[in-house]
Specification:
The protein has 318 residues and is of the alpha/beta class. The chain has a single domain (14-30, 41-314), classed as Ribokinase (UDP-N-acetylmuramoyl-L-alanine:D-glutamate ligase, 3-Layer(aba) Sandwich). The chain has helices spanning 49-59, 74-85, 129-133, 136-141, 153-165, 197-204, 213-225, 264-277, 282-297, 309-314; strands at residues 14-17, 21-28, 40-47, 64-67, 69-71, 94-96, 102-108, 114-120, 144-148, 170-173, 192-193, 230-234, 240-243, 248-251. Helix 2 links the parallel strand 5 (69-71) and strand 6. Helix 6 (197-204) packs across helix 7 and helix 8 runs antiparallel to helix 9 (282-297).
Length: 318
């Protein structure tokens, strides 16, 4: 199966740009009741779409450099230390005194589904065009750029411009329905985009039901028509659809107990990037990515701490 070409230097680092923060996630033990305190199991971990993708790539053995912004605080220092210990190069991370380190607050129901979430990723606004331009050398050294939509609109344009000058493929994650619209003007410049069903609806400016596979495939083809080379749409428990100009397909998520959905999509994205950079056919890359997402769903945290390629093949979704 043909996969769109990426970089002539696949051993070069992946450059990951976007949000990083602390996740505070509570899983309800019963029905959510408004106006009062609800019993729950609460956990904390480091998160943020870009940070999660970077850590997953590093744990799979890929060289990765992270451009993100943290507050000038202890949480930020701990976040960078943890990322570095996982193998991520954080030397280009920015420390800002204008905003605290990002925070995500999520509430999950007993079935493992997200009820609602809040996030404060204002620190990412410190990643200005000038700051990104000062790290233009990282683009020249990279094999691929991943960016999330936490970046301000003008900074996102700068990332795409710098990537274009170095002829780098760009993979983008819409991050949330409130941020997805930031990617819409740039779809023709994206090599791969990885929305969930709600984000894909915003990018395509039409609604569809995640449970209807053909509607999801139509949405993926809508993204292709706007210039994306690989469209990968996650459908939660209904799996993933993907499409290129040559092929399209669907991979079921399989049956799995959901402990915590946070980070599952980021694990899928990172694994697909890793696989494609290693010349794996797209259908095999997506199957490996779905396996990574499924395993992430089963553990309380954003990234599997002992993630490896061997683990993914041992648990491969069929």
């Amino acid at each position: 199966m043909e996969t769109p070409a990426i970089s002539p230097s696949p051993e070069s680092p992946v450059l990951v740009i976007g949000g990083a923060g602390v996740d505070l996630v509570g899983r309800l033990t019963g029905e959510l009741r408004a106006g009062t305190s609800n019993p729950a199991n609460i956990r904390t971990s480091f998160g943020g779409v870009a940070r999660n993708v970077a850590e997953n790539l590093a744990r799979l053995g890929r060289s990765v450099k992270l451009i993100t912004a943290i507050g000038d605080d202890q949480l930020g220092e701990r976040l960078l230390a943890q990322a570095a210990s996982a193998g991520v190069d954080v030397s280009a991370a920015l420390r800002t005194s204008e905003h605290p380190t990002g925070t995500y607050l999520g509430v999950i129901n007993p079935a493992g589904q997200l009820e609602f979430a809040l996030d404060d990723m204002n620190a990412t606004s410190a990643l200005t065009p000038d700051y990104l331009k000062s790290h233009a050398a990282l683009f020249r050294e990279a094999s691929l750029v991943f960016v999330d939509a936490n970046l301000p609109a003008n900074s996102l344009r700068t990332v795409l411009s710098l990537a274009g000058k170095s002829q780098l493929p760009v993979c983008a994650d819409p991050t949330s329905t409130s941020l997805a619209g930031r990617l819409r003007p740039h779809l023709s410049r994206l090599w791969m985009v990885t929305p969930n069903s709600a984000e894909a609806a915003i990018l395509c400016e039409k609604t569809f039901e995640a449970a209807r596979r053909q509607q999801a495939l139509d949405a993926a083809k809508c993204l292709l028509a706007q210039g994306v080379e690989i469209a990968l749409i996650t459908l939660a428990e209904f799996g993933v659809v993907y499409a290129t100009s040559q092929t399209s397909g669907h991979i079921s998520a399989g049956l799995t107990k959901i402990i915590d959905p946070t980070g599952a999509g980021d694990a899928l994205t990172a694994t697909v990037i890793f696989a494609l950079l290693n010349d794996m056919p797209l259908d095999d890359a997506v199957r490996l990515g779905v396996t990574a997402a499924s395993l992430t769903l089963r553990q309380p945290g954003t990234v599997i701490p002992n993630l490896s390629l061997e683990m993914l093949y041992d648990q491969l979704v069929v």
